[in-house]
Specification:
With about 325 residues, this protein is an alpha/beta fold. It folds into 2 domains: about 120 residues, Rossmann fold; about 170 residues, Dihydrodipicolinate Reductase, domain 2. About 30% of the residues lie in helices and about 30% in strands. The strands form 2 sheets. It has a 9-stranded mixed β-sheet with strand order 14-13-12-11-7-10-9-8-15. Strands 3-2-1-4-5-6 form a 6-stranded parallel β-sheet, with helices on both faces. α5 links the parallel β5 and β6. α7 packs across α9. The radius of gyration is 20 Å and the shape is globular.
């Protein structure tokens, strides 16, 4: 058996503690080996499920650790590019939380550094690793719903009470579009294998962050509409509407947290075929795909070029938005 990929986590973020660190710890081919945090008390929850975890009190110390192969980065958005480049320079593979950059043009440096070092660098865009999304993509490609007519997406939650949250702070790259817009936009691009030719948008701003964004776009052969909000009742859904049927993902983004992942295939005669995925853990699947790519050279499902394409659309949404 090959040695597991040794992961270090850069920062004791809540998301890392609750989702990604446990996923790394349980993934085949991976080992959660180290954590960097200046607050040793924040390491205790990680040690509770991974007692052999090595704890560094400085980020640079983790990057200098010769026993670490890969770095997972859950830092605030505005620090992603800086620390991804530092990790690559230190000879570590990088899996960085989304959005990996705040602007599409920042991907150039990351792609160049990836190619120069020969290391794997990727955005932690977990949904493309989930079997519900792979099934939806295959169904569309196979013509299960005929020619695609329209795609709709929605993702919302309400975090107005959490005033200290980085999503509510402009200086940390907060706002709804960067945090969850990547899902309704990237999900449509992934499932349809298509790129928008035109984009229109409207944004409601609050304290210099976008709290509600409406998007409309024209893709080759079909139209698209979506919204994201961090000031609305929790909801998520993706629908791919064709001439001969419809595909609905009821829990497309937070499977097992918001609800059960399932693919509904609606066909003529009001027939509905439902495929359920109650146990699939897209975070664990993401880590395993990352490790396979490092170990075996397998093609990674979400390369930097794909993530750059989503960020290019987000940039267009920001640049062309009218106020709400």
């Amino acid at each position: 058996m090959p040695k597991p990929v040794q992961f270090g986590v850069l920062g004791a973020a809540k998301f890392a503690r609750e989702y990604m660190a446990p996923a790394i710890h349980s993934a085949n081919g991976a080992q959660l080996a180290a954590l960097a945090t200046s607050d040793t008390a924040k390491a205790n929850p990680f040690l509770s499920f991974c007692p052999d975890l090595k704890v560094h009190n400085r980020y640079d110390a983790l990057l200098a650790d010769p026993g670490i192969d890969a770095i997972y980065i859950p830092l605030p958005n505005h620090l992603h590019v800086e620390w991804s480049l530092k990790a690559l320079d230190a000879g570590k593979h990088v899996l960085c939380e989304k959005p990996m950059t705040l602007r599409a043009d920042e991907f150039g440096a990351l792609i160049a550094k990836r190619d120069q070092t020969g290391l794997l660098a990727a955005e932690a865009y977990m949904i493309v690793h989930h079997p519900q999304w792979q099934m939806a993509r295959d169904l569309i490609a196979d013509g299960a719903i005929g020619n695609l007519v329209h795609v709709t997406g929605a993702f919302s939650f309400d975090n107005r009470a959490d005033t200290g949250n980085i999503r509510n702070r402009a200086e940390t790259g907060g706002g709804g579009l960067r945090d969850i817009g990547v899902y309704v936009i990237g999900g449509a691009r992934f499932a349809t294998r298509a790129e928008p030719v035109s984009v229109q948008s409207a944004i409601r701003w609050q304290d210099d962050i976008d709290v509600f964004t409406e998007i409309r776009a024209q893709f080759p052969g079909f139209t698209y509409s979506a919204y994201v909000s961090i000031r609305a009742h929790p909801h998520q859904e993706m629908v791919f509407h064709g001439e001969g049927g419809l595909i609905r993902l009821a829990t497309p983004f937070n499977a097992r947290v918001f609800g059960e992942a399932r693919v509904e295939l609606h066909r003529s005669g009001l027939e509905v075929q439902i495929t359920r995925f109650p146990a699939a853990d897209h975070y664990k699947l993401q880590v395993e795909a990352f490790c396979r790519s490092i170990r075996d050279g397998a093609e990674y499902p979400c390369p930097l070029e794909f993530s750059r394409g989503t960020q290019e659309v987000i940039d267009r949404v920001f640049e062309g938005a009218v106020p709400l």
